[in-house]
Amino acid sequence: MSFDTHGPGLWYATRATGLVTLLMLTASVLLGLLVAGRFSSQRWPRFLTQGLHRNISLLVLVFLVLHVGTTVLDSYTSIPLSAAFVPFASAYKAGWLSLGAVALDLLIALVVTSLVRNRLGYRTWRRLHWLAYACWPVAVAHGLGIGTDRSVTWVIAMTLGCVGCVGVAAAWRIVNFGAR
Amino acid sequence: MNTIAIARRGVPRLLAGLSYYHSADLAEHERIYGPLPVVGRRFIDVVDASGLTGRGGAGFPAGRKMRSVAAGRGGKVVVANGCEGEPASSKDRLLLTRLPHLVLDGIVAAAMAVGAADAYLCVHDHETELMDWLDDAVAERTDRVRVTVTGIPGRYVASEQSSIVQYLTGGPAKPTFAPPRPHERGVRGLPTMVSNVETLAHLALIARYGDRWFRSAGLPAAPGSMLVTVSGAVCRPGVYEIELGTSIGQVVASAGGPAERLQALLVGGYFGAWLPAGVAWQLPMTHAALKAAGGALGAGMVIALPVSSCLLAETARVVRYLAYEGAGQCGPCVFGLPALADAMTDLAYHGGRGRVLGQLATLLPLVERRGACRHPDGVTQLIRSALRAAAEDARRHDQAGPCHGVVRGPLLPLPGDDR
Amino acid sequence: MRLRVNPIACAGHGMCAELLPELITLDPWGYPVLASQDVPAELTGHARRAAAACPTLALLTDNSLVTDSPGPRHARRA
User: What is the ipTM of this complex?
Assistant: First the structure.
């Protein structure tokens, strides 16, 4: 199977994986808010919310690898690998791309600190985990600003939907359990 | 009063130099008790041999505590706990206001023995006059140990050992989760000896007169003397020094005897236990004997309750006070203690529906030992002992309603009452 | 394996009771009550998972004490 780095295939892959990542990241944030707000019901135990939150967050990393990989491999835009981690490392849409790098850096910090939670201690971990509330909006901004699909209606609708869901969940969490 | 007299007599020992009129300054203190000898590491063996146990309530062997602190690594710290959180106790206050140099001697002796260069003398921070007083006393001295008088925020639970250690390390004055213990990692992470001021006062005398002298009072298994605060329906409430093993009846007698006929005695303070008068009278004041009787020696308080009072009402009042004096850190205490307070109030002042005793039986095991400190345990012990000591009354309250004693004014002191 | 709850860290999320119902139940206020401090051999995996799930790291497992028979019993310190 030949791998065409010149055609639009990789470009579609980048956009697709980017959108899926956004959806999964939103799901992770939603689940995180549900954990903090102590959501549970007859058929939905709390450990499920938390288990999904953790697993989906790891999946986000997987999709990010694909998203970054397809972007770097795509020869249409010469974006170096460093641009995935370092802001302004690429000239192509430097600002919006940098937001993606920032979001990725924050996400790596969030995942790594969560994996070593036991060693960090709860209080330190909790304070660092607030970065999630920076990571997600930066990712959303990256997705909107990078402009690739800004004119596609369903993408806009989907993004707005994500924002709406997180807004509702955040309000619910604050009402349900204050600022604990 | 001179030092030879102290070495011979039983009691008083700590209170031998007590004057009603003034506090002993350094010169007078040395005239009465003699100067403090220099002690080193081997003093710990002497303290071990003396059998001195902590006088703050827990009764932990002082020598063992000193040994584990001295064995730690790094600098050491000595903390003297003079906060006296118990509203019904006045002995620490007496020592600090009238015999401060005895306490300071003890701090210095302990510091020299464990190798500490730093010490803290802690009282509640609203006691500004007392703190100035103690500052003056410290200023009179020329010890190599640096003693800092420190004010601790004034909640009941703030005077608990781990609260003080956390506060001195820069955190809030709240209890911490058990390991590590202060003697391993205490103030600023250093091995810390936290002792009640009375315990340290005893150390001051042991440094002068030795372990055999200390053991010449009290019982072989419970040596030495202790301070007790006697209050309630007695003719002469106050602080008295007794030999360990003295019966509760003798303690009440030395406080002038009962002012009315007694139904029960609260021994050990609000974290102690009620004992029916008949049972309590012969009991010796030792940790072992009181524990065997379902009580506790605590910090040496004896409160005499007359038959004209309602034991359940008094207990309900105290429990309600204690319910809101926790640190607010642990769910079972934050929710359980107010629930217990409600149930006790119901039993004492309303009752009559036959449900409350059952409620208490369900709640008590849900609160015991489920907090980070002993605050909830003290409350449950108090309630259990009340239900035992006034079992008949409790049944009658539950079935038929409150007794006539409820209309009498409260006896047990609480902060905020007019003293 | 011994099980302990840090009551200060515990915020009453209740996941431990969902994941280890054999040993942990919740009191009327949502806080865990341990039926026993000793974890029988067949439940150690579940206990570890419950401890990892606790959002505030309040459930602690301690492997330094070993029970040599199933069922809650007084463990001797190794």
Answer: 0.82
pLDDT > 90 in chain A, percent: 59
Domain tally, chain A: 1
Is residue A54 assigned to a domain?
yes
What's the pLDDT band for B230 if we cut at 50, 70, 90? very high
Comparing B416 with C38, which gets the higher pLDDT? Answer: C38
What is the domain extent for residue A127?
9-177
Q: For residues B273 and B294, is the Cβ–Cβ distance under 8 A?
A: yes
A97 is a domain residue: yes
CA distances in angstroms from B285 to A128, B197, B246, B293, B407, listed in the order given: 54, 20, 6, 11, 32
- Look at C6 and B371 and tell me if their CB atoms are within 8 Å: no
| Chain C residue nearest residue A32, CA to CA | C55
Q: Establish if B10 belongs to a structural domain.
A: yes
Q: What is the mean pLDDT of chain A?
A: 89
Q: How far is C10 from chain B (nearest CA, A)?
A: 7
| C-alpha pair distances (Å), B251 with each of B231, B288, C16 | 11, 17, 51
Using CB atoms, pick whichever of A38, A46, A121 lies closest to residue C18: A46
Q: Looking at chain C from residue 30 to 59, which residues have their Cβ under 8 Å from any Cβ of chain B?
A: 30-31, 33
- Is A34 a domain residue? yes
> pTM of the entire structure?
0.86
Residue B146 C-beta-side C-alpha neighbours within 13 Å: 5
The predicted-structure confidence for B233-257, as pLDDT tens digits, reads as follows 999 999 999 999 999 999 999 999 9
Of B257, B290, B306, which residue sits at a domain end? B306
Q: Do the chains C and B touch each other, judged by at least 3 C-beta pairs below 8 angstroms?
A: yes
Helix (H) or strand (E) holding B145: none
The answer to whether residue B172 is domain-embedded is no
* pLDDT tier for residue A146 given thresholds of 50, 70 and 90: confident
Alpha carbon distance B409, C2 (integer Å): 49
Output phi, psi for A151, to 5 deg: -90, -5
Structural domain includes residue A1:
no
**How close C41 gets to chain A, by Cα (Å)?**
23
Residues in B closer than 8 angstroms to C5, CB to CB, are 370
Distance (Å) from the C-alpha of residue C55 to the closest C-alpha of chain A?
Answer: 8
Query: Rounded to whole angstroms, how far apart are CA atoms A120 and B60?
Result: 34
Average pLDDT estimate for B71-80: 94
Q: Taking a contact as any Cβ pair under 8 Å apart, which residues of chain A between 78 and 117 contact chain C?
A: 117
pLDDT on residue B98: 92
Assign domain C2-62 one CATH number from 2.130.10.10, 3.30.70.20, 3.40.50.620, 3.20.20.140. 3.30.70.20
Order of strands across the sheet with B76-81? Answer: B146-152, B116-124, B76-81, B192-196
B301-306 β-sheet, strand order? B238-243, B225-232, B301-306, B262-267, B273-276
Under DSSP, the state recorded for B242 is E
Domain boundaries defined on chain C: 2-62
User: Do B348 and B401 reside in the same domain of the chain?
Assistant: yes
Average per-residue pLDDT for chain B: 91
Domain extent at residue B325 = 311-407
For residue B292, how many other CB atoms are within 10 A of its CB? 10
Checking if the pLDDT of C73 tops 60, the result is: no
Of B110 and C72, the structure prediction assigns the larger pLDDT to B110
Which pair of tokens denotes residue B83?
């906060």
pLDDT reading at C18 higher than 50:
yes
Give tens-digit pLDDT for B354-363: 899 999 999 9
Residues 110-169 of A with CB under 8 A from C: 117-118, 121-122, 125
What's the CATH number where B291 sits?
Answer: 3.10.20.600
Q: Which two tokens stand for residue A101?
A: 């790098």
